[in-house]
Amino acid sequence: MDATLQALRGLVPRELQNPRVGIICGSGLSGLAASLRQSVLVSYAELPGFVQSTVPGHKSSLAFGLMGSGAGVPVVAMLGRFHPYEGHKLSSVVYPVRVMAKMGVKNIIITNAAGALNPELTVGTIVVVHDHIALPNLTGMNPLLGPQTDPSLPRFLPLSDAYSRLLRKLVFRAAHDLSIERDALAEGTYAWVSGPTYETAAEGRFLRAAGADVVGMSTVPEVLAAREEGMNVLVLSLVTNAVVIPASYQSVRDEFEAEIAGVSTKTVVEEVVSHEEVLALGRLKGDLMKSLVEKVLDLLPSNTQQ
Ligand SMILES: O=P(O)(O)O[C@H]1O[C@H](CO)[C@@H](O)[C@H]1O
Prior knowledge:
By secondary structure, the chain is an alpha/beta fold. It has helices at about 1-10, 90-100, 135-140, 165-175, 200-210, 220-230, 250-260, 275-300, and strands at about 20-25, 35-45, 60-65, 75-80, 105-115, 125-135, 185-190, 215, 230-240. It is about 30% helix and about 20% strand. Helix 2 (about 90-100) crosses helix 6 and helix 4 crosses helix 8. The protein starts with a helix and ends in a 7-residue tail after the last helix. The mean pLDDT is about 95.
């Protein structure tokens, strides 16, 4: 950690060395940081302890700068995150969050691309996450597993308050101030899965039945580290696709038997999702996400821990 912080002190101008807000850009959402002023990019390759992002739609740089109107808020944005499915250790996945904490970040805005499990969520909706289901955490893949390296951090971290109510409400205020239509935003629960495979229909049904609204392969590790470090957390999921969950299985036997009996049937073609589709939606809705985040920064109270 000391080596990373020292490298950053050498690469980032002094006035940007104490960001107030950290941002993590999800798949195809690096454009979020396009409006940073006085921005300085630091490649992950220059930072000891950082790995490389290998997923299309994720760059490998930290961007420092000022965001929002007026004087702006000093922020640090990860243009490209790390996922365990890339082969990165969980400790590497959350390392940038720990670095942000050491630089003084008190609020973190984590964005992601996600598939909709809730049939009421249409593609393009931004979901303000208020809870999560993390099967990997429950089954032993938790970034906080292991010896406590910093005794000042809690051993048993509560997560019932993981998603800041104040920050969530700010998003709705921001949308209201920007006259964003009501249906563009929703609230929901994020299911974290390890990926890199997308869900089968049965898995989608299972996660939906468990109460999840959207599903993705990231975010929860960063949320856990951020909460452990005492940050206020806001998560915004952009719905990039629907997880196709047919109400019932359409039997191939029925289909076959109808065919040989000469009865005309509708052949079922299973829909599939692709990362290209995910990235395309990120490009399409990137501006909405950017305006929302900028407005949240404008509304962030300056006189509190926030
Ligand atoms: O969560 P982010 O990084 O936004 O990306 C999402 O998009 C990718 C799959 O298309 C997965 O990495 C999934 O987690």
